[in-house]
Design brief:
about 250 residues; alpha/beta; Rossmann fold; eight-stranded mixed beta sheet; 8 strands; about 45% helix; globular
Length: about 250
């Protein structure tokens, strides 16, 4: 991976393929390898930029509190470094929250928005409190309990559960803690939807146990022109569970 220094962190990324720029943002608590299966199917259509979000993979983080908007500013700085003025941004789960923050902060730089297994709503109070509880537990006892709880929620596929577990186990506790707090404090992006003037693709598995498919249908209802692909039987990892269908959907952003 290549690295640059932005916003006080070491920011790691991969770049591959040719075509219009497409940034793929992974979810919590994973890294860019989440996209390994689908990236080869997109590399002849897009110039792919695959970062490790701050605190994950080979990217470092900071000890102070940060927001989804701060992570979005990391992406903008990376695009500046690559001399890319505009790009389509695709985010999975937490990466979707970052993509929405990017769309809110840098609308002039956005050519398309992809929302994969994510939602536009903020956390309700109980979920927000739960994230802070999880962050405190990670600080006190490490990541093991989070890994154990999340592994079966990603997918019902045993091989992909193995991937998820091994990927989560490679991450640093500081990344978990920072991301949990940032997700807890994220804003409701529903008002953003009416301002979007770029193509929007929504990909969601109907067996997603972490973010219900109803969240995707609500976005589609607010954006009738959006391209919604519901993947039957897929859980929270459609880019690995149904890589061909996911790739075909994302090509609407070309």
């Amino acid at each position: 991976m290549e690295t640059i220094n932005v916003n006080g962190i070491r920011f790691a990324y991969e770049r591959r393929g040719t075509g219009s720029p497409l940034v793929l943002l992974h979810g919590y608590p994973l890294d860019h390898h989440l996209w390994d299966e689908v990236a080869p199917l997109l590399a002849d259509t897009f110039e792919l930029i695959l970062p490790d979000l701050r605190g994950f993979g080979e990217s470092s983080t900071v000890d102070s509190f940060y927001t989804m908007e701060d992570i979005a500013s990391d992406i903008a700085a990376l695009l500046d470094h690559l001399e890319i003025q505009k790009a389509a941004i695709v985010g999975h789960s937490m990466g979707g929250y970052v993509a929405l923050a990017f769309a809110r902060l840098y609308p002039e730089r956005l050519t398309g928005l992809g929302l994969v297994s994510t939602q536009v709503l903020a956390d309700p109070p109980d979920r927000r409190d739960g994230r802070y509880k999880s962050a405190a537990e990670v600080a006190d006892k490490g990541i093991a309990s989070v890994v154990e709880a999340m592994t079966p929620k990603f997918t019902a596929d045993p091989q992909l559960q193995k991937f998820a577990r091994e990927n989560m186990e490679r991450q640093q506790p500081a990344g978990y803690i920072g991301a949990l707090k940032a997700m807890a404090e994220r804003v409701d992006s529903t008002p953003l939807l009416s301002t979007l003037n770029v193509p929007v693709v929504i990909v969601h598995g109907d067996a997603d146990s972490l973010i219900p498919i109803d969240r995707a249908r609500e976005v589609k209802a607010a954006l009738p022109d959006a391209h919604l692909v519901e993947i039957r039987g897929a859980g929270h990892m459609p880019m690995m569970e149904e890589k061909e269908k996911t790739a075909e959907a994302l090509k609407f952003l070309a």
